[in-house]
Write the structure tokens for this entry.
Amino acid sequence: MQAEKHVLVVFPHPDDEAFSSSGTIKQFTQSGVPVTYLCGTLGQMGRNLGNPLFANRETLPEVRKKELVDACKVMGIQDLRMLGLHDKTLEFEDENYLADIIGKVLEEVKPSLLLTFYPKHGVHPDHDAMSNAAALAVSRMPKEERPVIYGKAILKNSVDLIGPPDITIDIRDVAEDKLKAIKAHKSQTSGWVELMEKQLKENAPEIEDWLYRETFWTYEA
Ligand SMILES: [Zn+2]
């Protein structure tokens, strides 16, 4: 893994980072690279209110905020910034407005690497809104100051459209931490966690892509 000065992580929902890149993030923080995480919303529209119910629409943001803080502790992220934007409405925000917010942080922390979804390959409209805005913010910077962008593409046919990922990070040494980060978002991930633990025990092939490696596509802003 290349030495980075500062890594900026940009995702709309608490738990996006856990599934997509918490192993990579953990490796960075472990090796002393500062990581700033801009989380767009508190996922207040999350479908999952728990079974048995542990939250309602009013309390869900508080629950998810706490889960996000816990996940950041696991990943070693010391600079978490919650933007407090409204879940499921990011696609209706002005892209320039979102890009302005991200741009201010780019100016401040001067990251050498930015982790986000791959623009237009995020499946969920919030994912695309956030990653498009991040790419726009980077494209406004002078070329020599731009961070490299690692985009996570998750369309079923992403590989057909943009080819295989060019970045593969072996996260086997932090697999347990990744599972813990996913677990921290328990209001949303309990079913997943049980499945992963079972697969881990059985050494199922799926676990490779969940807990042993993370892949990204370099994006040219
Ligand atoms: Zn999401």
About this structure: The chain has eight helices and seven strands. The mean pLDDT is 93.
